[in-house]
């Protein structure tokens, strides 16, 4: 294959371009060479650097002309015509969206070329080198020194390319064509209620590893009663027969196993003295996985999550999810996608100030900082893929795309104790095609990880013979562990007072989670409770809704919509929305609205019920 590739690459720059690998590879805790910081960038709405004037892609040509931006060319003679120059172009910070870095790019949806020059990291001739991207929204065509490495689609999950043997010692040119145009067959599709931030939104790193290295591992508490841990390790480059040692030094565990021909080794051992991870005691243990020449170090929490009848059980005890929905957006200092661990920590800190023990990370996989911080700070988390509203349900490529994003999300975060729910979809309209699509995803998710709950934010309807009875019934619910739904009584659905009379019918013997409710308020706008957009309106809506939810049988938690106001191109009302969805319990700057305190007091009441000050009986009725 390699020889064929090399021969083909003599013929065309993109001939060997492969889809990027988003098979899991644990990178976060490795020492890496960061390519973050300033990148040069060219905004290219007509994709002039990619297509010739006959609209043929340059990277399909045997010898791409210097006009192809990925060749990163410079004028060699005074008469040479080259109509771009990275060095003279704008700079953009990576990680970061472009929309908030240059006012001309605020609404931009299209292609931007990024270029970074770098020297090869120091490495031995036998080492392997990868270039790893935390996330690029939405499509990335990636080129190294004028040759295409490959393509990746999907804006919120990591991917990487192996570049072993392709680096020069100095002056490498890494070029990305990043395109955030929306497509009907994309995931997400054309219509969403969040900003389509484009760019290299998460870190870029060079990872040097030995020829045989620890690529991935899984560790989970398999049996609560026996305190038994199950683990597996994947070595990349292994022949079979290599030894792997897995240690949890604080627990005195040191287990050794031999890998099979596929590079995998399995472990099973008991940890009788281990403290279980929970929001009240987010205990993490150091784990070391070593093979000859390579050691991967991480920190993991040990806990179980399960549904039994209508109860949700964390470590075998009923837990009530005091949640809040969160977008991966931080507007307090200029806005845009969360750029670093500090901003991620601030979002979780605000959730803690609400006395929450749970965050719904909506509507796509958030950055890795946030789930790792949730582990540390003691917050349970829900992670989801952007299968949102309408999706091209009958398109196989769309399905594959959704499945790849699911696999990449699970692959990255499967060792995070905080993550207890994988969610597969949000408010998707019931149809045969949608049911088929989502049941395939459910089967896939279970095959990838059978230690967590599966859910999806579904919808409600009213009983035709009684408009005061709301019903959650969806064929998808039969396949899920947690019956979740969004509802907007008091906002899109009647006045807040409607909540006083609505009763709920949810005919599943499963825990019920209310994944959204809410209404807009402009922080600082005051009036009486009947006046829309005021803090008092939102406050009244929260009071009535929370009282209504307490009457739901099997009610095991809630994540109101949403922590902070967030940008959305659907929210245009001047003077009120100004491009923001105002359903935050805080403004985009982090100023708390009245509803924040209603929710906090409700959670304080709830937190008192149940063990450790942090677990409360599911469906236990209203707080005292
Ligand atoms: C929803 C969606 C969420 C929207 C929200 C709203 O049901 O799940 O993405 O932002 O409603 O504000 O309308």
Q: What structural class do you assign from the helix and strand content?
A: alpha/beta
Number of domains: 3
CATH C-level class of the largest domain: Alpha Beta
Give the total of beta strands: 34
The gyration radius over C-alpha positions equals 25 Å
Most strands sheet: 8 strands, parallel, barrel
CATH architecture descriptor text of the largest domain: Alpha-Beta Barrel
Question: What can you tell me about this protein's structure?
Answer:
The protein is an alpha/beta fold and 624 residues long. The protein folds into 3 domains: 110 residues, Sandwich (Immunoglobulin-like), CATH 2.60.40.10; 178 residues, Galactose-binding domain-like (Jelly Rolls); 289 residues, Alpha-Beta Barrel (TIM Barrel), CATH 3.20.20.80. 16% of the residues lie in helices and 29% in strands. It has 7 helices and 34 strands. Helix 4 packs parallel to helix 5. It is globular. The protein starts with a helix and ends in a 17-residue tail after the last helix. The structure holds (2S,3S,4S,5R)-3,4,5-trihydroxy-6-oxo-oxane-2-carboxylic acid. Keywords: Glycosidase, Hydrolase, Signal. Belongs to the glycosyl hydrolase 2 family. It comes from Pseudoxanthomonas broegbernensis. This is Beta-glucuronidase.
């Amino acid at each position: 294959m390699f020889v064929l590739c090399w021969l083909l690459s003599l013929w065309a720059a993109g001939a060997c371009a492969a889809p990027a690998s988003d098979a899991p590879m644990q990178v976060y805790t490795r020492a890496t060479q960061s390519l973050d910081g300033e990148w040069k960038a060219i905004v290219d709405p007509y994709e002039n650097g990619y297509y010739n004037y006959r609209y043929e892609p340059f990277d399909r040509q045997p010898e791409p002309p210097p006009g192809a931006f990925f060749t990163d060319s410079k004028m060699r003679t005074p008469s040479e015509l080259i109509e771009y120059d990275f060095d003279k172009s704008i700079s953009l910070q990576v990680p970061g969206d472009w929309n908030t870095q240059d006012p001309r790019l605020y609404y931009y949806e299209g292609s931007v070329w990024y270029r970074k020059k770098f020297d090869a990291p120091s490495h031995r001739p036998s080492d392997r080198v990868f270039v790893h991207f935390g996330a690029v929204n939405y499509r990335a065509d990636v080129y190294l020194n004028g040759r295409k490495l490959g393509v990746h689609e999907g804006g919120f999950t990591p991917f990487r390319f192996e570049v072993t043997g392709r680096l020069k010692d100095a002056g490498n040119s890494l070029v990305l064509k990043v395109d955030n145009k929306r497509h009907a067959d994309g995931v997400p599709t054309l219509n969403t209620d969040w900003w389509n931030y484009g760019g290299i939104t998460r870190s870029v790193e060079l990872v040097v590893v030995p020829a045989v290295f620890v690529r991935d591992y899984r560790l989970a508490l398999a049996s609560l009663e026996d305190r038994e841990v199950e683990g597996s390790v994947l070595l990349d480059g292994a022949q079979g027969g290599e030894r792997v040692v897995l240690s949890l030094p604080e627990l005195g565990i040191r287990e050794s196993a031999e890998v099979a021909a596929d590079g995998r080794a399995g472990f099973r051992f008991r940890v009788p003295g281990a403290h279980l991870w929970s929001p009240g005691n987010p205990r993490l243990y150091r784990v070391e996985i070593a093979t000859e020449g390579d050691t991967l170090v991480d920190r993991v929490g040990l806990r179980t999550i399960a549904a039994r009848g209508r109860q949700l059980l964390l470590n075998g005890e009923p837990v009530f999810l005091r949640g809040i929905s969160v977008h991966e957006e931080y507007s307090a200092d200029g806005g845009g996608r969360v750029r670093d661990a500090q901003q991620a920590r601030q979002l979780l800190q605000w959730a803690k100030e609400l006395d929450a023990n749970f965050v719904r990370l909506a509507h796509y996989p958030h950055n890795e900082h946030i789930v790792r911080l949730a582990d540390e700070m003691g917050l349970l988390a829900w992670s989801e893929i952007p299968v949102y509203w309408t999706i091209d349900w009958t398109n196989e490529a769309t399905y594959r795309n959704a499945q790849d994003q699911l696999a990449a999300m699970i692959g990255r975060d499967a060792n995070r104790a905080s993550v207890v729910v994988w969610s597969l979809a949000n408010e998707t309209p019931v149809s045969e095609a949608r049911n088929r699509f989502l049941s395939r995803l459910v089967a896939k998710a279970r095959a990838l990880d059978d230690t967590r709950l599966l859910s999806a934010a579904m919808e409600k309807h009213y009983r035709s013979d009684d408009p005061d009875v709301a019903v959650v019934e969806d064929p998808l619910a039969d396949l899920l562990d947690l019956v979740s739904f969004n509802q907007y009584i008091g906002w899109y659905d009647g006045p807040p007072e409607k909540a006083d009379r609505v009763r709920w019918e949810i005919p599943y013997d499963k825990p019920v989670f209310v994944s959204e409710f809410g209404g807009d308020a402009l922080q600082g706008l005051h009036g009486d409770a009947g006046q829309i957009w005021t803090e008092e309106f939102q406050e009244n809506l929260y009071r009535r809704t929370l009282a209504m939810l307490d009457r739901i049988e099997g009610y095991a938690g809630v994540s109101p919509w949403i922590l902070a106001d967030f940008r959305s191109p659907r929210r245009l009302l001047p003077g009120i929305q100004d491009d923001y969805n105002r359903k935050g319990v805080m403004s985009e700057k982090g100023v708390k609205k009245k509803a924040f305190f209603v929710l906090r007091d409700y959670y304080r009441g709830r937190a008192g019920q149940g063990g450790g000050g942090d677990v409360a009986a599911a469906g236990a009725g209203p707080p005292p």
